[in-house]
Amino acid sequence: MVESSSSMRVKIKRVYEPPDERDGKRILVDRLWPRGLSKQSAKIDLWVKDIAPSTELRTWFGHDPEKWAGFQKHYRAELREGAEALAILKSEAAKGPVTLLYGAKDEEHNQAVVLQKILLSK
Length: 122
What we know:
By secondary structure, the protein is α/β, with parallel strands linked by helices. It is built from five helices and four strands, in the order E-E-H-E-H-H-H-E-H. The chain has one domain. The chain has a four-stranded parallel β-sheet, covered by helices on one side. The two termini are 22 Å apart.
């Protein structure tokens, strides 16, 4: 789990990690529901499917660290086109602590990392 140092509290963690009372609002930022996880055990407050990278971008990237810089560039471009989904996240983060949940095994190279940077930079 990665904690932010800004006054706005935006954490990121794998959806498979146990929920914690300090998570605040738990927001799933994946396009697909995580495999093998029930809605009850996930304790997800909000699922913003449209914030996830496009299927094409996700497939191209494949969590390859060599493609990380390119992924971030293309993903930020997708986010500019789909501004409504990002506005939802910004609104939720402004209300109180949020935890962005993702399913990827790679904790350093995923869309939640990019989203956290965006939310904390404004």
